[in-house]
Protein 1
Amino acid sequence: MKRRTLFAAATAVATLALTVPAFAQETLKIGAVGPKTGPLAGGAAVSFWPNVQLWAHDVNEAGGITVGGTSYMVEIIEYDDQTNPGETIKAVQRLATQDEADFILAPYSTGLNIAAAPIFQRYGYPMVTHTAISDQIEDLSNKFPNMYFLLGGATGLAGGVVDVLTDMREAGEIGNRVAMVNVADAFGIELASVGKPQLEEAGFEIVYETSYPLGTQDLSPVINGAKDSNPDAFVAWSYPPDTFGLTEQAQIAGLAPKAFYTAVATAFPAYAGRFGAAAEGVLGAGGVYADGDQFKEYAARHEAVTGAKPDFWASAPTYATFEILHQAIEGAGSTDKEAVAEYIANNSFETVIGPVDWDENNSNAKYWTVGQWQGGVFKGVASTGRDGAVAAMPKSGWE
Amino acid sequence: MMTTTEYRNLAIGAALFILAACLPFVGGAYLLTIGVTIAMYTVLATSWALFSGPTHYISLATAAFFGLGTYTTGLGFEHLDYWLLVPLAAILGAALAAIVGVATLRLSGVYFVIFTLGLAELIRQLVTWGQNVSGQKGLYVLTDLTEVHIYWQLLVLAALVYLTGWLIGRSRLGFALRIIGDDEEVARHSGINTARAKVLLFMVSGAAAAATGAILAPRYIYIEPALAFTPMLSFQVVIMALLGGTGRLWGPVVGVIPFTFLWEAISASFPNQTTLLLGLCFLAIVFILPKGFVGLLTTIRTRMNAREAFS
């Protein structure tokens, strides 16, 4: 009984008592698999699990998902995959065959999503991924036609940085000199390898370039090297621990260029929590239309229900994938997986991140690429076609 | 010459193998997924015990060989025929084990344990470094292989491991290893080339783990260092083998099967405490069943014999 989210049942009972009993009450079993332990547990605890909780709360509070004359409450069945693809496969298989889940939310992270894709495909579950970033979306969507991608790709994310820097250069705020560093792990490597040629093509001079292993404790050589090269812009394709480490070290060493960019986790509320006013003007991967009413309402609900603020990158798209599933079930007027999958393929959706539709590779082509801390909020400054971007401003020191 | 008992054991083994091969026809997809997990850990734990059982050298290098195998498939499958990759991975695994073995098997005790643990991390860092230089991220192994294919491949591999183990047990090498396990000094004085014997066995173990990795790569599809070289794998293999007991060839599988179901039950029922409960199980196994199920059986048999003697 513990694995069933109790509040789903509790909410269902409460709602039952309040609503006019004109609709028959049914339950949809929704599976959720993600890391609660292992290397990715920290990220999932910020971007994934709170949104699962919030979505179930929102749906049930609004009276469930309405299909025909019936409203379905959602019951979440959660499993921990321990950041291990073998466990993800087992958990999704268990959901499909043992729990007979009606739908399964996409797992967390690129590797775990792709490992689970064949099982989603075999049982016909639509799979709208929120945190899978791949440079092989075309191959994947050919192989797994039920698989959709919402968060964008490395080329766009790196391209956004180059666009922002180019704009700042044209405005006369920065010069040509870029110091570029990357964490020698997975996504950091990919961003660096697509980012470097784009920077060079845009006419930037890379005056310092280095990489460091994931988990490096002492980042002072990296920052000192960058500082000695006297850059106009500092770009770090970094991961959560080093995003924090590099920022801290830059403050200590007094590396304060007009453009300071760190990648993953800059958009986390914890970043502003740690650096306070010094975070002002820092650029990072992701972003949202932070001034939009949709996001503001979502953020307020997120905090009220889960007790934590959403991050300014993956949180809202994660919630959006659940909204898409919700709308597709209602739109298809059926809880049949195939009908819902077909509805997803042929429709666009209005979500917390704005309208979402699919390109020829089942991918959302319009996503946020760069954000900047401005007045305590991480605002989107560049995207591949989203509304609501604000202008990037030059950073003025660490005070 | 083979004795009647040995013929009988071979026949039982073959019958069990055929029975296991029928799982995809009788069990559902869920049982098959569990079956793949059991087959995978059976190969890994049995081949681990082939080396560590008689020599008492605890190797934590399973993840290193396993990762090597997944990368063999990941890097090679666009250039080579898939069916060549598994044997190739086995050869590479054996070669790596030989190099490592020659360098370290003269070490003993805790030095060897630490080295093997570091080996997986070392190779993982090398792969990461290679990726950083080449700018390439994860690898994709998109094939048409399904879980049934992977399950059968693992079963065949398991059969090969058992056959190898059985042959080694009957050979001079197996005899030499048992002596090394009892007292390495005595073995050396009896004229046994202890280093050579240990390296050979380590190579068998490494080859089997690498082949397992190569077979499983199409199941994971997406290969990256953090997933392929996860140190958890090495520990799981050790704990499963110890639960079964390393004294007999069939020991590890007796540990793998209950442990897989236990693991599954914990994962399904306590998604928020999985790791905690697994840790408690590890402790329980070490304290309550230090010699595994094999040891438990031996103890029971000895007691029963003693009782008969008194009556």
Protein 2
Amino acid sequence: MKADHYLDAIGLSCPMPIVKTRNAMKEAETGEILEVKTTDKGAKADLTAWAKSGGHELLEQTEDEGVFTFFIRKG
Amino acid sequence: MTVRIMTPAEAAQYSIDKKPLFILDVRTEDAFADWKLEGGSFSYLNVPYFDLLDGVEGIADQLPDDRDILVVCAKEGSSEMVADMLSEAGIGAAYLKGGMQAWSDYLRPVKIAELESGGELYQFVRLGKGCLSYMVIDQGQAAVIDATRMADVFLAFAAEKEAVITHVFDTHLHADHISGGRAIAAAAGAAYYLPARDAAEVVFPFRDLTDGLRVTIGKTGVEALSSPGHTSGSTSFIVGDRYLLTGDILFIDSIGRPDLAGLAEDWAGDLRKTLYSRYGALSGNLTVLPAHFMEMDEVNEDGSVAAPLKTLFAQNHGLNVADETEFRSLVTENLPPQPNAYQEIRKTNMGILTPAADEQSEMEIGPNRCAVK
């Protein structure tokens, strides 16, 4: 999947992945896609809930050797 | 306003003492609905931390000023951030050190009794998950029963009491938490006992925990009593002729569920026979010490979880179902959801899976669900 914006949150622990995702999303236009990479396990549930509460759409999430990748479309 | 750090031990004291505490839980709504800090006089507000990033002013009027406020999250980071924001807004609050993960791992040792022979019996209360473990100490020897994953706590406790752990028992193959039994036995050079009927797939050596097995810890007798029903190998213990350790068969206000190893229908009959016949033939004056509690109202004022067998025969609904068919449907239908990752936990306890420490902690997140009411 191709993203318009990219955020590297690898190595950061809660709450920073969400804080940074939120800030990056502010820079994006509605409909644009943000790709986030994180190693924080807790971010999985939190990003899902955060996207839902903010009206964004979680398009895809994958895990590869401890790195979680999320594609989120700004709502 | 300064931000205070509250340890799980301090939070546990509020819980046991029924001291009012306001919990601001900043995890997601799902996580909060599934599992939270429980206490006699706790009140709650759940607002995910990501809804507070613009400021805490929106919830200020929902926070009390007549009781302490504790901010709680999964691991600590978000609760510290929110507590800092509250402090800047002039609201004093503490955050829970280590978050729900540390709460899940915290063990509170409670002295149950001085035994007649001069020994002592301790209960280790895991408030976060409702698990109860036991240590019998007498004349420099100790036995550990149903130890949780935090092996170091048990080893340190025995060392402090200048006792050598000689016997480690698990009443059954646990499905809701990872046993610390094998690790404790290895560290202490003790024998590890597990009922063979639960252990068909176990890949490490153990000694069979058989009906009638009797060991002596100092001068205190510890006697095994086969009590199938939660699992087919489930075994109880009678300690010092006064205490009945019931494992996951009988709890204070509920009874064991027979389905976690997948055989509810087969084991419902065993469970009934154990509860109504085998326990029914024992002295009502024995004090029941279960391996779990479900609700904070099962916890006594001194923080222990214990009640006379005769009281349970009078009050516990699961011991008072006269009709066998009705009993069978009680324990096989409408069961609560199964514990988090219970299949992986069983495999870990069999030695088939060997997850890393942080994975083990993750697998155990959430409440225990070993009972039917």
